Amino acid sequence: MLVKRVAFSLDSWAKFVPEHLKTTVEKLIIPADVFKDMEAPTLKDLGYKSIEFNGDVAFGIDKAAKTAALTPFKFDFAQAGSFSSEVHLSNITEDMLGIAALDDPFTQLGAAKFEKLRLQMVNGDFIDKYVTWKAKKENKSAADVKEEIETMLKAVTLTIPDNDQQKKAQDAIDAFMTDPQSLTLIITPKAKLSLLDLQLGVMTGGLGLLDKVNFEVVANSAI
Asked: What is the pTM of this model?
């Protein structure tokens, strides 16, 4: 494996938490044989001789605005595509930072607010290669394989309780599978939502949480 650059930086501290943290990996070339023992399809199965990885992860706290953000969080696999996410929080106070917050974590989690989660998958040539591999392996047409992927993605949208948002999500999946450039999911709270409520909702499999947030799915957009 070869790598061009790895960088790590910290900029000032808020108690025991860095106010700004950034990690970058540039042009890490990974030979396909490294993953030869993985469950199929391996990179070699998909026709890759190697894969290039670039990564950016940054976290920042704005003490004046009382906000925190994990952005960018991006894994870029060059020709294959990329995955990125961002998380935004508000009402982040100094009392929540550092070891002292561990004395009363539920109060701190109850005060901090969730503002936004954004997930995006940008397709390069990965989907085409995957469809070609699966069609050949299972003796199916490429159209049948794409329909299976579309059905699987749409099944996930059935958990969205708002019928209008669910329909828009399914329309976005239709557009993405017709021309697979990118697919973006944005989740925002309908009203103030604490990190404690968010955590409890996730721990209970989304029970009571799905009705508290908006879901927006967008195809082939740079947002």
From this structure: 0.87
